[in-house]
Design a protein that fits this description.
The two termini are 38 Å apart. The protein has ten helices and no strands. The radius of gyration is 21 Å and the shape is elongated. The chain folds into two domains: 63 residues, no CATH class; 123 residues, Enzyme I, Chain A, domain 2 (Orthogonal Bundle). By secondary structure, it is an all-alpha fold.
Length: 201
């Protein structure tokens, strides 16, 4: 994820950071050594200069990609956590979708909750990335429900509430309503396309 974020930077900071990605990767993955080797203290895995470059790169990413999933504008995760809990309850009671799909959605949402609870360790960018994946999965699931069914209406309301919580976390508050409307239109478009494909089949 960090490498993808570096690739989104302007040319000069991107080139500077890319010189160090191999060293950062090796320090994390330790391809030639065992992480549990007690004879190799953490300080021996990477030198301070490389760590300083990594921290500086994080600052550059935050300033250049502010307001995106890479550098969310907010650390308020309460609304997002609440929406996750609401979705867990909705899915646990749901019989409208295949059990395997329901279990996959539950697993994704539980993982998102875990990341929210550990945001101080993994950061807001990781939460935002996972939340985007959850919204995509929920959107696909909504599109499989019968148009006009009560279940679809409940799921659509839940999807838009989740979208609003994500937008508030990722973006400035004044554009929340605008984004909800855009999200609603997107879901309608996706659903229309799915229905068209199903009719053609």
């Amino acid at each position: 994820m960090t490498i993808r974020q570096i690739e989104a930077l302007p040319e000069r900071p991107r080139i500077r950071a890319q010189r160090h990605t191999s060293a950062w990767w090796s320090a994390v993955m330790q391809p030639m050594a065992n992480w549990q080797d007690s004879g190799r203290p953490a300080a021996s895995l990477i030198n301070q200069d490389r760590l300083d470059h990594l921290e500086s790169t994080a600052d550059v990413i935050s300033s250049n990609l502010e307001g995106t999933a890479a550098a969310p504008n907010s650390d308020r995760l309460e609304d997002l956590a609440k929406q996750c809990q609401d979705w867990l309850a909705l899915l646990s009671e749901s019989s409208e979708i295949a059990p395997a799909l329901r279990d996959e959605l539950l697993s994704q949402i539980r993982h998102l909750i875990w990341l929210i609870e550990h945001a101080d360790l993994f950061g807001g960018a990781r939460v935002a990335q996972e939340a985007s994946g959850v919204i995509g999965s929920l959107t696909q699931a909504v599109s499989t429900l019968d148009v006009g069914s009560p279940a679809r209406g409940r799921w659509m309301n839940g999807l838009l509430a989740m979208l609003a919580a994500c937008v508030f976390f990722n973006q400035a508050a004044p554009i929340v309503q605008e984004s909800i409307s855009a999200g609603s239109d997107l879901v309608k478009e996706i659903s229309t396309i799915v229905e068209q494909v199903q009719r053609d089949d």
